[in-house]
Amino acid sequence: GTGDRGRIFRVATDGKGEVFYETNQTHVMTLAVSPAGELLAATEPNGLLYRISAPASGEAKAFVLYDAPQGEIHRVTFGSDGSVYAAVMGGSSVGPVRQPPGTAASRPIS
User: Fold this and answer.
1) pTM
2) Number of helices (H), then strands (E), in the chain
3) What are the φ and ψ backbone dihedral angles of 10, each rounded to 5 degrees?
4) Residue 70 CB contacts under 8 Å (≥ 6 apart), including other chains
5) Beta strands 39-44 and 61-67: pairing type?
6) For the segment 7-43, what is each residue's pLDDT rounded down to a tens digit?
7) CB-count exposure of residue 25 (10 Å: 0-12, 13-18, 19+)
């Protein structure tokens, strides 16, 4: 992930990088891979946590898994029960961000 344009790059085995996904946020603060193999990207200035899938062919597809009331998400980790925990900056909300398996609680990004 990068700052100043909110892009996520994929690096091939030959060392060449290419843009994998553009978040349209200012910064990608952290990346994490879930136990299920899903890529999560935490951003600022809108405090969006993206879940990004990479199909075998075509473009990556992203969904907003969590839209924090705070402007920055700096860290993401996973609980043993499948909960996603996000460390945010700019408020006092505490608690897990959870999307139970098989639900469609996230919203697509166009």
Assistant:
1) 0.76
2) 0, 9
3) -110, 135
4) 47, 88, 89, 90, 91, 93
5) unpaired
6) 998 888 899 988 889 999 999 999 999 888 889 999 9
7) buried
